[in-house]
Amino acid sequence: MHVAVAQLDASTDPAANLDAATNLIGRAASAGAQLVVLPEYSSSWEPRPSAASLAAAAVTLDGPFVGALARAAHEHRVTVLAGLVERNPAGKSSNTVVALNSGGELVGAYRKVHLYDAFGDRESDRLAAHPPEALVLDTGGLRVGVMTCYDLRFPEMARFLVDAGADVLAVPAAWVAGPGKVDHWLTLARARAIENTVYVLACGQTGRYRSGHSVIVDPVGEVLAAMGEEQGVAVAEISPERIQEVRARNPSLVNRRFEVRPL
């Protein structure tokens, strides 16, 4: 199947973000994609958010933002993964990825496990952390596991999803820019692919303070498609046969001597 990473420059204007996101979904579908991965914070992004500003911008899973993405998924007959801020009237908002199938149905939601308390930031001051729950979707003969941004720095998160059956890892992100950060992003995406013999679809936001450089990586770490700092889409073909071929030569999952258990 063909898959796409849809690199977005989101702002605090949800209507503009939605227009851009649905346009990118259409472009990806026109290029043959059956699965489209949008970044983290696609509904709204600001460089210095607070708990209050995120709560004000948060959306519900049955609200108009997700509904419009669902209609785009149905119109273009593609599966869509998109990161957003989810409203929680009882407490802090959640950093959530929604999964919409090609019929426009909401088939899953992943709420971020590892919040970005690093590099001088504290995402946990404004968002709720969630216990690990594996979201793995069947699409196009492959099983796609979902994580978010900072999760990529934790190899056990990827292995947790692989143990749940994933052979593709989708990583919506808003990877903050800074010295060495693009190198970290690309190195980690390739490492998660190599060590797990899976595809990695790493979709980042672009624009000021964000790193861009979305990539699609194959199970030996080869970059199949890559972007720079432009808003747009990159498409590549992936297949279960390629995973089987790689795992026959590199049976690292079979040879492992440790298991991953959530704390």
Automatic annotation (TrEMBL):
The keyword Nucleotidyltransferase does not apply. Residues 1-240 form the CN hydrolase domain. Keywords: Hydrolase. It comes from the Bacteria. Transmembrane segments: none annotated. One of its GO terms (molecular function) is hydrolase activity. It holds the Pfam family CN_hydrolase. InterPro entries: C-N_Hydrolase, C-N_Hydrolase_sf, UPF0012_CS. The keyword Iron does not apply. PANTHER family: DEAMINATED GLUTATHIONE AMIDASE (PTHR23088:SF27), NITRILASE-RELATED (PTHR23088). Belongs to the carbon-nitrogen hydrolase superfamily. NIT1/NIT2 family. This is Carbon-nitrogen hydrolase family protein. It comes from Georgenia yuyongxinii.
